[in-house]
Amino acid sequence: MTGNLRAVCAPLLASAAVAGIVASFLGAPAPWVLLWACLLLPLLALVPRWSPVRSGAVAGALGVAAVALWTVPLVWADGSWLEVGGAAAFWALPAFGAVALGGHLRRQVGLTRQAVRDARRDQQLELARDLHDFVAHDVSAIVVQAQAARFVAGSDPEQAVRALERIEAAGLAALACMDRTVHALREAAGAQSASVPGTSELPRLVERFEGAVLKVDPAAVRELSREADTTAYRVAVEALTNVRRHALGASVVRVGLRRAPAGIELSVTNSAPARGASGLLGRRRRGGTGLAGLRGRVEAAGGTLRAGVGEDGGWLVSAVFPAVAGPKG
């Protein structure tokens, strides 16, 4: 219904109700008054569906009164108070039924709109987490490599060139993540979205992180659900990003995916950074969702996440997911 038609529903019902009440008490023919009362019922359903609450309430009250009272002049002369009340109550039932129908439709539309708003909000949060989990990792790599290249450019040009190559790779990875984000935004319009990376991308991820070592059990990968597979990759990205931010001097960084007694474990460990070493990003760091945000993702996939100091004084991040049988899907 267009906006103009919605705006006239309440005034139309109120005017028709007042006119009908006056006509019935002035002795209008009963068949015509009955037809008029029946025509008010659709309006009694439309007003609570479309009209503003205040004007709709006033018009609805007049409409219910008009339908309920149209028989009063017919039975007033020869009937008792009980008969008058019974006739009014009888005709009030369809009037209230029409109002209830319109109110129910209004409520359903409101619930649908709220569900759409919630879905959009969840999608926005999902995209924000994607940007944090993936783009922040690659951008931090770009900054670290650029700073390193600046320090060694004069003394070791070959190392500076290698740093520039790693900057290029990290930039391309960030662009790919942005492309996936754009595809996700277009998905609602029917476009096919790119898949979210999973543990199959771990070798490329670790390769871009200089000095990290990867050890993956292929059988463990096959026992991860699709949701756990992508979440495990997110955990690895976040953990490596934090290593680059806070433990840049760590001599050993290990990423592992293996079977564990509790399920399938994705772990990222790093040794304690050398004394005096600090992340080049430290002075520029701002708060983010980080591992606190990933914990909810891991738990949603049926797993558990823990992070803390390792046995060698370094840092350990471990996510354990339940093993599933059969292919991912």
What is the number of helical segments per DSSP (H or I, 4+ residues)?
Answer: 10
Low-confidence stretches: 279-288
Order of helices and strands: HHHHHHHEHHEEHEE
* Alpha carbon gyration radius: 34 Å
Task: Identify the overall geometry.
Answer: elongated
Largest sheet: 5 strands, mixed
Could you tell me the number of beta strands? Answer: 5
Structural class: alpha+beta
Q: Order the strands across the largest sheet as they lie in space.
A: 1-2-3-5-4
The average pLDDT score comes to 81
The rounded distance between the terminal residues' Cα atoms is 42 Å
Percent of sequence in beta strands: 5-15%
Helix content: 55-70%
Characterize the structure shown.
By secondary structure, the chain is an alpha+beta fold. It is 65% helix and 10% strand. The protein is built from ten helices and five strands, in the order H-H-H-H-H-H-H-E-H-H-E-E-H-E-E. The protein has a five-stranded mixed beta sheet with strand order 1-2-3-5-4. A hairpin with a 2-residue loop joins strand 2 (253-260) and strand 3 (263-270). The chain is elongated, with a radius of gyration of 34 Å. It starts with a helix and ends in an 8-residue tail after the last strand.
Characteristics of this structure?
alpha+beta; five-stranded mixed sheet; 329 residues
